[in-house]
Amino acid sequence: MDRRTHDRYLERAMWSIGRGDRNFWIAVVGLGTLVAAGIYAWIYQIQRGLWVTGLNQKVSWGFYIINCVFFIGISYGGAMTSAILRLTNAKWRAPLTRLAETTAVAALLVGAVYPIVDMGRPDRFLFILLYPQAGSPVVWDVVAISTYMLASLVFLYLPLIPDLAITRDSLGAGWLRRIYNVLSLGWKGTPGQERSLARGIGIMAVLIIPLAVSVHSVLAWLFAVTARGGWHSTIFAPLFVLAAMLSGVAAVILVVAAFRKVYGLHEFITAKHFRYLSYLLVALGIGYLYFMVSEYLTEGYLLEESTTPVLEAIFIGSYAPAFWSFTIIGLIFPLCLVALPGRFAIARACTASGLVIAGMWLKRFLIVVPGMAEPVMPWDWGRYSPTWVEVTITIGSAAAIPLILIIFFRFFPVMSVHEMEEVEGAVETPRAALRPALAEGGNG
Amino acid sequence: MKKLVCAIVALGIIGLSVVVAGPFAAGTRTPRVATQPADAGHDHGTVVGLAPAPITDPAATAARLVVTAQPFEKTERGYALQVNIVAPDGKPVADAQVKFYELVDLFGTREMLLAAATTDGRGAASYGYLPAHPGSHPLIVRFTGRDRTLTAGEGRLTLEATVSAERPAPERSGFAAFSDKVPYAAGALVLTVWGLIAFALIATARGVIGAAPRTSTKGETA
To answer: How far apart are CA A108 and CA A146, in angstroms?
Structure first.
């Protein structure tokens, strides 16, 4: 990368910092309104109780648990994408890792709230901390999610240190510069600092993978250790992990595509990046398909008493439209779409990712609701129809992720500058030389 | 003649009416009330039936219940709760159904049925009671009454138990000894992970700060 390209990269990476143009505020107000509507619905639910939702005595897990699994899955995919690309030293990763890591944190923050929403009484969350039962999968979840959240934040922060220093250097004297100076830990890019940072990032990149696996395994065990038809499966943990990676990579593709378009990153995030991410999507999708077939084949062949009604409901019963929509439109078709060679790689990757995300949400629905609705006593099947409260909270939380991202990137570079320098072997770039480029970049 | 026939028919109708409607006539109607006293509402099986004629003086027909508790010779068997029912005339009441209750605290004070028994010829009924725990046990024995001669009664006793049943120990599989340690192992693993995260953060921060060139107060390199 020549000096000019480097400067352009720097300019685009820093483009959004401090920039509050009309489009930014329209996006903030629009997304903020949706988030506010979600918060209002939650307050409404707290005031009146869980009866305002579609949850009932038979189907006591619905949208909230589905969303918890779904959003944490997206987070997992973002973290894994970044960690794997770092560990394999993939050179094309530089413009993507920051977006992937931030998506991971944003989705995790949203997903982690859902168990509290599902409780109905948020104050009771304190009981889990005060009176934890080591044998309860809910406690495992709290420990795993909080640990993963801590790790994700550190994993986001460490690679950000040099970029914080670049941002600091681009600012004039003032309180904001002092904050960036503190956050960047006085980074100057000396060899000693580089070594310390590389070690820290290396530890976190190695650690984040088993942590992310553990989080989604624990979420899966929440179902698998319950003696219910369709849940009590040994393959659930790897199935959940793979599902999380699949939906996470799809989410990263969509986020990268959106920021590429809005922030004008076309020069640095090219069709090549989408092609590589698509390969990852296809590999994960095929893996997921294999796991899913394996699960249904073993369960369907034995047809145990508790599993049979659930399988019937999913394959040929009332949940069949959702299941076949997921399998064909949400899994097989998107994989074919990105696997086949041809033009419009970015458009195809985005379409496939959108379908995969919708399909994976539907799949979580098919795991949670039929398993709950199936009667464990000789009685009717449970029914579940979400109310406006659940739908509004879901929409609000989905809007919270892009809102967090655009606000975050108003203060921090959207692409990792230091990482780009690292992969290009230009780590020793003097900061003073970057200032003119930043000044031209227009830090709003 | 006609008048005689009419008079006979009229008398016949009146007589028949009296025979058929007799039990329901205002003056002779027997009220349908619970045979059990009001405090027997604790018993879920409240029986409703034809009650005896109104009792003018309940005290005159009230049975007296004397409840005693004696430890068994084999102390581990607990206590023999005995109730003696005596009629107002001082005679023992045989073949009387009695129920033994204990007052327990379960979302409020409630009566827990311990046993039901029938008195013998001496008016005595007993029940071998092994309390769940040592300490104070308020007990109630109830007699629900019998036809017109005896009204319901109850006797109370607070048993200060020193003997109690052993706490039931859950059957433990061989796997339990192993699984007991799993939370500790998991806890150690979680602490290790937290330690590694803290190390990554703190060691990096220390390394970056330590390797930074000395700067002036304005943040510029000296």
So the answer is: 10
Q: Can you tell me the distance from the alpha carbon of B34 to that of B36, in angstroms, rounded to the nearest whole number?
A: 5
DSSP labels, A109-178? HHHHHHHHHHHS-GGGHHHHHHS--TT-HHHHHHHHHHHHHHHHHHHHHHHHHHHHHHHHHHS-SSHHHH
3-state secondary structure of A311: helix
Q: What is residue B1's predicted lDDT score, i.e. its pLDDT? A: 54
Q: Out of B193, B208, B219, name the one closest to residue A147 (CB).
A: B193
- What gap in Å lies between CA A369 and CA A61, rounded to an integer? 7
**Chain B contacts of A192, Cβ < 8 Å?**
207, 210-211
DSSP string computed for A270-332: -HHHHHHHHHHHHHHHHHHHHHHHHHHHHHHHH--TTTHHHHHHHHTSTTHHHHHIIIIIIII
Q: Do B196 and A207 touch (CB under 8 A)?
A: yes
Q: What is the nearest CA distance from A147 to chain B, expressed in angstroms? A: 7
The alpha carbon dihedral of A284, A248, A260, A349 has a sign of positive
How far is the C-alpha of A245 from the C-alpha of A251, rounded, in Å?
10
**Two tokens at A53?**
């939702």
**Measured between alpha carbons, how far is A353 from A41 in angstroms, rounded to an integer?**
29
Residue that is written with structure tokens 């992970």 in the block: B193
Are β-strands B97-105 and B79-86 bridged in parallel, bridged antiparallel, or unpaired? unpaired
| A207 neighbors A151 (Cβ within 8 angstroms) | yes
pLDDT tens-digit readout, A223-239: 888 888 888 888 999 99
| CA-wise closest residue to B70 among B142, B124, B145, B144 | B124
Min Cα–Cα distance to chain A from B212, Å: 6
A67-105 pLDDT per residue, tens = 999 999 999 888 888 888 888 878 788 888 889 999 999
pLDDT at B60 over 70: no
- The pair of structure tokens assigned to A327 is 């399998």
ipTM value > 0.85: no
Q: For residue A392, what pLDDT is reported?
A: 96
Measured between alpha carbons, how far is A159 from A152 in angstroms, rounded to an integer? 12
What is the amino acid identity at position A21? D
Tokens linked to A255: 């986020």
The CB-side HSE value for B162 (13 A sphere, CA atoms) comes to: 4
Q: How much is the average pLDDT of A19-28? A: 84
Contacts of B76 (CB under 8 A, 6+ apart): B163
- Which of A91, A84, A87, A4 shows the shortest CA–CA distance to A422? A91
- For residues A48 and B89, give the distance between their C-alpha atoms in angstroms, rounded to a whole number: 63
Q: Which of A154, A168, A188 has its CB closest to that of B201?
A: A154
Q: How many Å apart are CA A355 and CA A361, to the nearest integer?
A: 10
B114-118 long-range Cβ contacts below 8 angstroms, 24+ apart: B114/B139, B117/B83
